[in-house]
Amino acid sequence: MEIFDDTRALFGQLAAIPGALGVKTLIENHDAWAHSEALPAMAAAWARVAAMPRNPAVEARIARQRQALEPLVTRLSVRCAAAG
User: Which residue among 43, 44, 51, 65 is least crowded, i.e. fewest CB within 10 A of its CB?
Assistant: First the structure.
């Protein structure tokens, strides 16, 4: 999947930019990418990949990763999520 490789390469390059400039560049590039004409095709490809059946070992690994990452999630109240 060339789209995924291109996206991974783009974000890898942006992550190498130091400090706040890297964050600013990442946000600007993500905004341009999100408004790209290619996004619907990428979303369709992601949906197809997500709908593919996974073997039990992969499902178990994903469940472990989600459980490990859950404490890092900051949930916003509905009031805060709708602000701005």
Answer: 51
